[in-house]
Amino acid sequence: MASEKKREDDPTASVSAVNNPTVALLCYCASSILMTVTNKYVLSGMNFNLNFLLLCVQSAVALLAIQTCKTIGIFQYRDFKLDEAKKWFPISLLLIALIYTGSKALQYLSVPVYTIFKNMAIIVTAYAEMLWFGGSNVSRMTLFSFGLMVLSSIIAAWADIQHALTASSSTTEAHSSISTLNAGYTWMAINCFCAAAFTLSLRKKIKVLGFKDLDTMFYNNLLPIPVLLAASLFLEDWSSANLEKNFPPEQRLTIISVMVFSGMSAVFISYTQGWCLRVGTSTTFSMVGALNKLPLSIVGLVFFDAPVTFGSVSAIICGFVSGIVYTLAKLQQSAKAQLLPTVAPKA
């Protein structure tokens, strides 16, 4: 009883949870799954082409939510400062590139294939971190996990193409399906490089400016809004006919509600994103995409009618195993680092 009382009164318990990388990664995992599912629902519409508008709504709703929480005293973060905004703006541009290319890839690819190909960002991030931040060398086990990631991506692409060819009733339909997949793979490749650039740049800028998690969330939602709104107004079709296609009367309320809900999801993903980078490394943060692959892929198979084939299931399993191998490799690497002496022995 005394020990339980002591734990309840111990303020370090909550502090240790806040600084625990495992807790941060699990929270980010859950929020990223929620975000992907809501985005896929909106983007899976046959005629939806207002990606910038969707992203703008998400940022606006998220900003409104966190500002409301600050106003009523739930939490606090630093006030807007122009000089800080100028320094943070390049990060916002990278974030816009990341979320836009991700939305385009998700629009053309199924949820399982999308999550499998996100693994490629881990490889890019790992080598970039090693070159730019003096990260540790890639071990044999890590290299093996990278090989599994590449293999799972190849299997997923092969299964996707085979299904597109066999499910098509004509050559024209098959050609159209392959073109759609190629567009998705192209956007996915661009997204992987954007993800690596954003993750590494965000980590560096957080340390330079001394941002806390809530500060990062505030600027990550505020600064993209004018850029996304301008991009939507000038680059997307706002004609009444196109709006009718994007928001058909029978689904209009549902689509708008999901867009707003996805904005609330962005609150959690923005916060946990900064949280993960503060308490862990950028490569480990990127690894969340591999560890949440299995539940996210199952959601995609069940709710979005993704093709269930031997190839697609094999790719999911291979991708998930690669995540486990990578995690074990990082744990092994961390254990070795702890065994090394941190100071030179005295003569």
From TrEMBL:
| Role this protein plays | Involved in the import of GDP-mannose from the cytoplasm into the Golgi lumen.
Q: Which PANTHER family match?
A: SOLUTE CARRIER FAMILY 35 (PTHR11132)
Keywords, A to Z, come to:
Cytoplasmic vesicle, Endoplasmic reticulum, Golgi apparatus, Membrane, Sugar transport, Transmembrane, Transmembrane helix, Transport
Q: Where in the cell is it found?
A: Golgi apparatus membrane; Cytoplasmic vesicle membrane; Endoplasmic reticulum membrane
Cross-referenced InterPro entries: TPT_transporter
Q: Which GO terms describe its cellular component?
A: cytoplasmic vesicle membrane; endoplasmic reticulum membrane; Golgi membrane
Which ranges does the record mark as transmembrane?
21-42, 48-67, 88-110, 116-134, 146-165, 185-202, 214-235, 255-272, 284-304, 310-329
- Report the protein name in the record: GDP-mannose transporter
Q: Which membrane topology describes this protein?
A: Multi-pass membrane protein
Which family does the record assign?
Belongs to the TPT transporter family. SLC35D subfamily.
Quaternary context? Homooligomer.
